[in-house]
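User: Structure with S-adenosylmethionine, tokens only please.
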Amino acid sequence: MKFGIITLFPEMLETMKFGVVHRAIQRKILDIVCINPRDYTDDKNRTIDDAPFGGGPGMIMMAKPLDSAICAAKENLPTAKIIYLSPQGKKFDQALAKKIATADSLVMIAGRYDGIDQRIIDEHVDEEWSLGDFVISGGELAALVMIDAIARCIPGVVGDAGSVMDDSFYKGLLKYPQYTRPENYKGRKVPKVLLSGNHGDIAKWRQKHSLGVTWSKRPDILDKKMLSSEEEIVLSEFIKEQQ
Ligand SMILES: C[S@@+](CC[C@H](N)C(=O)[O-])C[C@H]1O[C@@H](n2cnc3c(N)ncnc32)[C@H](O)[C@@H]1O
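Assistant:
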């Protein structure tokens, strides 16, 4: 999958050069190209922002350099959706990451200052995506987080695909608790069933605790999810065990 990132701070995207995403770039499963609107200015100060019409605090990213940068990105990635990263957008989640991971390309616009000229949104933007209901200083951090989440959903990016499918949210629930050595840590023991080697029992324990953890930490998820009758039974067993 190819990403074009419109950013004034391409250096921030360099942090993709670690871990799973970096390996995917090396193996050419992922390609991330930054396009800097400052390279599309035509004055000697390379100006990219100006004061808002109507007055008020903050500066606004000007339309022309952004327009040219987006057109350059579109030339290389003609079928890509254009996404503006914005606190006003649709909240980014695992379902969106999974869906967009089937695309072959995507362009993300990282805003700065007090945001971008509205006419760029009207002219180019297909969707606005938000990291959450809070404001950060620039879209680059949002791009980093979203690219990582999307990349994990692309086959071959994470070595063991099973571990992605077991991740929280992938199938609509939170992940069950996990343990590693030692078996006894400061008197806290690993649940016996996980040491039993019985794969059927381990799978049942994990299903029960996945439902249970979701019920106790994120009941809002269960409110929106239709549980099967088997899942209902397993969850009520979990709840009884807590009483
Ligand atoms: C300081 S913010 C501007 C916020 C704008 N004044 C507002 O209130 O909507 C600068 C840039 O950071 C990015 N940004 C801020 N919060 C974000 C969020 N929650 N999700 C995605 N991008 C965000 C956007 O690209 C935005 O243009």
